[in-house]
Design brief:
homodimer; about 600 residues; alpha+beta; two-stranded antiparallel sheet; about 55% helix; Acyl-CoA dehydrogenase (chains A, B); flavoprotein (chains A, B); oxidoreductase (chains A, B)
Chain lengths: ~600, ~600
Amino acid sequence: MPDYQAPLRDLRFVMDEMLDYPAHYARLPGGEEATPDVVAAILEEGARFAREVLLPLNQSGDQEGCLLEGGEVKAPKGFKEAYQQYVEGGWPSLAAEPAHGGQGLPHSLAMVLSEMICATNLAWGMYPGLSHGAADALRHHGTEEQQATYLTKLVEGVWTGTMCLTEPHCGTDLGLIKTRAVPTADGAYEITGTKIFISAGEHDLAENIVHLVLAKLPDAPEGSKGISLFVVPKFMPDAGGNPGERNGVACGSLEHKMGIHGNATCVMNFDAARGFLVGPPNKGLACMFTMMNAARLGVGIQGLGLTEASFQNALAYARDRLQMRALSGPQAPEKPADPIIVHPDVRRMLLTQKAFAEGGRMLVLYTAQMLDVVEHGQDSAERERAETLLSLLTPIVKAFLTEVGFEATNEGVQVFGGHGFIQEWGMEQLVRDSRITRLYEGTTGIQALDLLGRKVLMSQGESLKVFTKEIHKFCKGEEGNADMAEFVAPLAKLNAEWGELTMGIGMKAMKDREEVGAASVDYLMYSGYVTLAYLFARAAKQAQQAMAGGSDEAAFYQAKVKTARFYFQRLLPRTRAHAQCIQAGAEPLMALSAEEFGLGFEI
Amino acid sequence: MPDYQAPLRDLRFVMDEMLDYPAHYARLPGGEEATPDVVAAILEEGARFAREVLLPLNQSGDQEGCLLEGGEVKAPKGFKEAYQQYVEGGWPSLAAEPAHGGQGLPHSLAMVLSEMICATNLAWGMYPGLSHGAADALRHHGTEEQQATYLTKLVEGVWTGTMCLTEPHCGTDLGLIKTRAVPTADGAYEITGTKIFISAGEHDLAENIVHLVLAKLPDAPEGSKGISLFVVPKFMPDAGGNPGERNGVACGSLEHKMGIHGNATCVMNFDAARGFLVGPPNKGLACMFTMMNAARLGVGIQGLGLTEASFQNALAYARDRLQMRALSGPQAPEKPADPIIVHPDVRRMLLTQKAFAEGGRMLVLYTAQMLDVVEHGQDSAERERAETLLSLLTPIVKAFLTEVGFEATNEGVQVFGGHGFIQEWGMEQLVRDSRITRLYEGTTGIQALDLLGRKVLMSQGESLKVFTKEIHKFCKGEEGNADMAEFVAPLAKLNAEWGELTMGIGMKAMKDREEVGAASVDYLMYSGYVTLAYLFARAAKQAQQAMAGGSDEAAFYQAKVKTARFYFQRLLPRTRAHAQCIQAGAEPLMALSAEEFGLGFEI
């Protein structure tokens, strides 16, 4: 069975040493309670919960799946009990506002714990995972009464939440939804329609489920301007706030999926279900984006968690499995063959995983600081800057970390050879589970359009400049530092190129809007690689400083510098391909007619 | 349910127009019967069999899987009947020698049919698929008696074959095998040991199974020099050549796998099973490579077939699914949204699939001609040249087509968005099925070492030169052809760089053998991209000529040129990343100690 240890040492490096989280928390209202000791204790306890409670249920949950019987969904064995422990441990309320019963700790801390949950049991993590988005929507857009009724229960964790957006004929294009909301005499609404792909739409982990549902009011404007958001509970709360009468919403069927079998992905039928408007009428899409942005960061963290899980197990296997001799001569002559970690190509795969795990962790924690500042920052200029960076980096976190996460989990299978394809070893499950992360909460293509179109080009490149200026400043600061030249020289070059490529697309897009879509995914991947290069350069500097200061953990810092070097020499060259593809423009993509695509096989 | 139409028009283009198969077959002994009419009839009949018989069993076979009961394995419903039709149709004997009951048609023709089988039902295809390798081993190394007893049955298809190589502790490193062969008084052997991952090791499709087994004789030399090959039937043939007494070989269990659920992947226990030596004692590894090379080409074709299957279904979905408007304005204003094929990023994914399908098909058919010449060619110089090219291209066919096949099937899922993750649509099955192709018959890493180490560097680059000279000649021939400049200029440059990179690795490897392993996978991928560039350039030329000649299929040829252009502009840039990674050398991979890999999470 796969094992997992939370990467506490690496987290300490990124949080305490590189990004100075202690100072960050000290400045944050509410953060002052997140002292280094408290943080360390929380992370250790979270690590224990993930490893001892969630991990043992991961393979069994995958094999067992969920069961729909008489309208009730049973999650796999042990899921409910694990969720009870989660609630009893106070985990759901960690980063929620004290006003709603939360502990008021910084969001970044919850994100770190989320990595551990995703690494050990993604399917389980999707039950509480959706509650955050629902809670965010209610916190920002709900009435006081809605907050008192639903939000406190979500924060406490005794109820869970869902996001009901997708319908059979539309996912990305929510302007097409058909679900209707008809006002009732008492100011509520009757919601009728079918939603699909609803994660944790129905289950037996919590006593009630709070659905956040997009629907159209009568006479709503056409398209995405006519969407409203509603809260629709599974059980109507009674006078005491406890689950009362059953509402008209039910799970029609469970999807059979490639992965995350332990999570109930439901078709939800709303049949004149009683619901309540959240936020202003016809402004549901904006409210939805509140949920969506939190969810997108969350999915990026899923990519990171699965990368780390796959890496740790591939590493253990590579140290243990004996096969062939090193080309340069036996490394373990006393054994019948060398452990496969001696082979350079196995190392290439392991280092790819390791670099994406450590790079992804830096990216998440860097972005998490921005989120903390956006949520709690006192200085408005600082908050505005953080908002800009957060909004720029969110699609990168989501799409880049899930794309490379899928690659990394596949490298894990590859290290295991044929055994990687066998369920028993657990490596193929990580691939299947990670496959969804490139799709849900907006595919990679959608994230890429968000990044390039909405975030970068719509701001005339200003949002990008906020980030590239920071990188530029870092590079300038290291000029003349010979130890850093191997990182700073290529980084500075890429940073300048990033701006040039952006400008190039912007110019072309003025003539032809399709140029944006044609460049978008390559642009996103390019951006991800440069962002990680910046963070790895900072990590290398931090590690060099620690070694110069005579640390007694020289091996750890040495490994960090070597990993950064691997990243720069063996992963960063991919920017060359992406840059060329960006520059190739839209013409090679748009040239074929829809018919011409099929002429090789259609008669 | 997914659909499939054999790409007959594209096959005709590659076979008849580009590679002049009619002339190739006319020159081949035995090939003269493969007249264009006969070939067309066979391909059409094969297309029908694949679509009408195999395709409907693909999803049900995946969901049902195989069942082991009382030592007997039942394949999914319908598999046995489909196999009977296959045998009755004479398909197994198509390319076998008339001396063994075969029809003596060229091997290349069987490979084309194999693409159709893999595209429609890979799990089913693995039952007859392994017979080819077993038959090859017996044809080349078996005694006349063994050929009469076993080979004719394999050719007829009433018996199937297996390749029993892997053991729990060794796959790549067969020198470590523990299975023993003890001579008996009558000149036979008793085989004892456990083999794992045996595809079609036990099933109910055929009346007998012929296992080709690697084992060690008593006092065999250590390691890979002490391996011998044995034929071990499931049922001992009786005096009439029919299945008689049960032999001491049985399926111990079935593996639970990520994909190809319909195929029985068996643990096979040999308990003093009666077997017969094939080829000389201790020369089993060489005999095994006879099976292996055929199998490797076969796996590359699996990658191709799955690519085409995924492409066709993604294309149909992209034309049908309405979502969002084109950025440049509505393309189907009469509909509620545009079909997603209008979006450039969807086109990028479809074209990636299309280019890998068409490029892979050209590579397979180019290589297949070499195989035909090696098997049947009359001119010894021509045969030697074909042998060189075949041996150079085999690891590229195997590893490159499976790596890009996995990418292509994943693009298919991505085009479907969330629906791609749902089993019902069939797209995720193609991903799961294709995942094994990167692993079995030698992982991508092993193919890469074979290409760079054994094929290229061990011949001092001579084998590569045979191919790069051909490419050089093609480029020279197009000098001054302005219509071809967009293809020929980058191709010529890459072709020269290919040699330089090879030389660079060779020089470094003289000092440090690990440089070979460090460069190998990037070298293989680089080689694959350049090889496809050569073939796409030839395809573009062919298409341009056809249009210049006033063809009434201008749209087909136009699409071919546009696909070639997409390949050059949007896929070939990946060579830039691979070239840089090759040049980065071994140092970044070898720097970390085995301990240093784990310092982020190990305490």
